[in-house]
Amino acid sequence: MRGYLADCDIQAPASLAEALAVLAREPGVWTPMAGGTDLMVVYNAGRLQATRFLDLSRLADLRGIREDTTSLSFGALTTYTDLRDCRAVHQHFPNLVKSARVTGALAIQNRGTLGGNIANASPAADTPPSLLAYGAELELISPRGLRRVAYDRFHQGYKRLDLAADELVARIIVPKPTGRGFHYFRKVGTRQAQAIAKVCLAAYARIQEGVVAELRIGLGSVAPAPVRARNAEALIIGKPLAALPVEAAREALLDEISPIDDIRATAHYRKVVTGNLLGQMLRELANG
Ligand SMILES: Cc1cc2nc3c(=O)[nH]c(=O)nc-3n(C[C@H](O)[C@H](O)[C@H](O)COP(=O)(O)OP(=O)(O)OC[C@H]3O[C@@H](n4cnc5c(N)ncnc54)[C@H](O)[C@@H]3O)c2cc1C
């Protein structure tokens, strides 16, 4: 049966302290709601049990993009439009701009948030591969205080997060790349726009004197959660650009993913495309 909004209880606290107090009083009872672009779809389809929503939209502490010398810190309520409009994001994190551009269309980009994309925990979401590639960290807040976790440890399985019932994602902190960087992002869907990813691969590499000094590869839609391709990364790091072990890395990558057949693509298709994207990324890396 479709959700009926009149049956819902919505609280819209004006301060973070007030929001945390609501969560502390009844942990697990109140579902945080940011832009509502994921929640309202499942609610409308009658697939959401929750009827009590904690509207985060008035929480100024969860807004804004802050820059310091070493990092950018994104409030969880940062929208895709905010990402697209921010010069520092274009300068330091072009993959995040690309992720934002291919997420839904303008209405979703105006309303959907980075925190919501992360906490919704879809394996097919578009910003997680870029956040993994850039080595992001999350700041989680609860009545017990702030805690910082590496984003690549936050997803613990399908829709399972290192997030307690009384915690909110407060900020997403992304270290600024240093030195000569290489950025790659590619989402493969049925169409160029308004499509959920069949495969998504984002990578960041730092090159030093012709050698790959640092590499992180983030993948979407090929496992129960967004994942790093750690074995493939390990094979490439330390190698000269002129002699990258592309085939060995491809084999390692295919061994560490576990795609499924679903309405969008088969597991076989996803494996072939993931291997091809890795090959394309490494060719572009080698060619400077
Ligand atoms: C037409 C359409 C197209 C879309 N296209 C794409 C696409 O191409 N790529 C893509 O990745 N997604 C897409 N989405 C999904 C969605 O828009 C994004 O995932 C969006 O970023 C969700 O953010 P939100 O603020 O709307 O989250 P909400 O719907 O408000 O919340 C989503 C989940 O996150 C939790 N949550 C939100 N904020 C916090 C917080 N600060 N702390 C703790 N938990 C929190 C909520 O409780 C809920 O479980 C699409 C959705 C629609 C309707």
Task: Summarize the structure in words.
It is a single chain. The chain has 288 residues and is α+β, with helices and mostly antiparallel strands. It folds into 3 domains: 5-55, Uridine Diphospho-n-acetylenolpyruvylglucosamine Reductase, domain 2; 60-175, Uridine Diphospho-n-acetylenolpyruvylglucosamine Reductase, domain 3; 180-286, CO dehydrogenase flavoprotein, C-terminal domain (Enolase-like, domain 1), CATH 3.30.390. The protein contains 11 helices and 14 strands. It has helices at 16-25, 39-44, 80-85, 87-92, 94-101, 106-111, 114-119, 127-133, 230-236, 246-256, 267-286, and strands at residues 9-11, 31-33, 52-55, 65-67, 71-75, 137-142, 145-150, 155-157, 160-161, 168-175, 180-188, 199-208, 211-220, 227-228. The strands form 4 sheets. Strands 4-5-10-6-7 form a 5-stranded antiparallel β-sheet. The protein has a 4-stranded antiparallel β-sheet with strand order 11-12-13-14, sandwiched between helices. Helix 9 (230-236) packs antiparallel against helix 10 (246-256). The model has no long low-confidence stretch (mean pLDDT 95). The structure holds flavin-adenine dinucleotide.
